[in-house]
Specification:
Elements: H1 18-30, E1 33-37, H2 44-54, E2 58-63, E3 68-69, E4 72-73, H3 75-88, H4 105-119, E5 123-128, H5 142-154, E6 158-164, H6 167-174, E7 189-192, H7 198-211, H8 218-228, H9 232-245, H10 248-273, H11 275-285, H12 291-302, H13 307-319, E8 323-328, E9 331-336, H14 339-346
Parallel strand pairs: 1-6, 1-7, 2-5, 5-6
Antiparallel strand pairs: 3-4, 8-9
Helix pairs in contact: 1-2, 4-5, 7-8, 7-9, 9-10, 10-11, 10-14, 11-12, 11-14
């Protein structure tokens, strides 16, 4: 059902993602590396799971965040996830002992490729929120990328899918255009999952309510979309709460309450990197969206900041997909990508 908040697993559970799903399923088979991009809560995890289930591939899904420990990617936790999947599909290869202490990533990739070759089926390793690999090992994930590069050069039956909501950081990490990076110059396909446009957002809600046989006034749907924009995750949350409360106002309030809890935890993590990040976001949320106005606001709060430092912080927020730059009347302005995030930041 559309208003089920859990990631979707089947094609019929998705709404109007046929084009993206078909493109992703084609890419998994025909490209050695696929990159799936999209801001937070646009449904990347769902479309990954559905594509792996619907394709004639052996799919292994890994949420990289689950391998985090103490702010770093734990090699042990990553291998535990990978080896757990290997055992689930019952791989037995001579000469390979599947124990954490005796196997490295290239060994795992060798085994997976051998498995696919014997069964004439592509094996896909799907790493969700892959930008967190930059916290892997002493060299910022380079060892992981070297293993992927090794597989790219040597394995015909193994494919990689990298997904991330911090779009710029994922690009920087993978380094396809960086001549010093292990994956420089490698062929890959990139797919972007966009939020729904306004009319499709309304239709999404209508379809969700049709599934549960609830009639909702048009003005309620319009107001919900006005507040939540086309971010599928927030629309699902609103629909879920409406179904359980039968009350439009309560559903919106509960959606924002839930969003506040989630977003504030994300902002708290961001603040640990630099308190100025939060003030930049606050300035933009309050309509001070030009570079000079942002600088004035931040300096009132924290004192002088150099132009170079402010530019670097803005660029980082763009890479993390918190904001995006736009041109208005020929002048550069900044906008918070998610309108729900914008509302939460105003009261943070």
């Amino acid at each position: 059902m559309l208003f089920d908040p859990r990631p979707k697993e089947k094609r019929e559970e998705l709404f109007d993602r046929e084009k993206e799903l078909s493109e992703l399923m084609h890419s998994l088979v025909n490209y050695p590396i696929t990159v799936l991009l999209g801001i937070r809560r646009t449904g990347k995890s769902s479309i990954i799971r559905v594509s792996l289930n619907e394709s004639d591939v052996v799919g292994i899904y890994i949420d990289v965040r689950r391998a985090m420990r103490g702010g770093r990617i734990s090699d042990e936790k990553l291998k535990t996830q990978l080896l757990g999947n290997l055992r689930r599909i019952k791989i037995k290869e001579p000469g390979i002992k599947l124990e954490l202490t005796s196997i490295d990533l290239t060994d795992i990739f060798d085994v997976l490729n051998s498995y696919g070759k014997k069964r004439k089926r592509i094996v896909v390793l799907a790493f969700d929120e892959a930008q967190y690999f930059r916290f892997y090992g002493a060299r910022g994930g380079e060892d992981f990328l070297l293993a992927v590069a090794y597989s790219y050069d040597n394995h015909e039956w193994l494919r990689f899918l990298f997904s991330g909501s911090e779009v710029g950081l994922l690009h920087d990490f993978l380094g396809f255009e960086d001549f010093k990076a292990p994956l420089f110059g490698r062929i890959y396909n990139e797919i972007t999952l966009e939020p729904f446009p306004r009319d499709l957002s309304v239709e999404f809600l209508k379809e969700g309510f049709r599934e549960v046989k609830i009639d909702v006034p048009e003005e309620h749907l319009e107001e919900a979309v006005e507040n939540l924009d086309g971010i599928p995750g927030w629309l699902v949350e609103y629909g879920y709460h409406y179904v359980h409360t039968k009350d439009h106002r309560k559903a919106l309030e509960r959606t924002f309450r839930s969003a506040q809890s989630l977003i504030r935890s994300e902002l708290a993590e961001l603040k640990k990197r630099s308190e100025r990040y939060l003030e930049i976001l606050k300035a933009i949320s309050l309509g001070m969206n030009r570079w000079s106005k942002i600088k004035e606001y931040v300096e009132v709060k924290y004192g002088p900041i150099t132009n170079a430092r402010l530019s670097a912080l803005l660029k980082n927020l763009e890479k993390m997909s918190w904001i995006k730059a736009e041109l208005q009347n020929g002048k550069k302005t900044y906008k918070i990508v998610d309108p729900v995030v914008e509302k939460v930041i105003r009261g943070f």
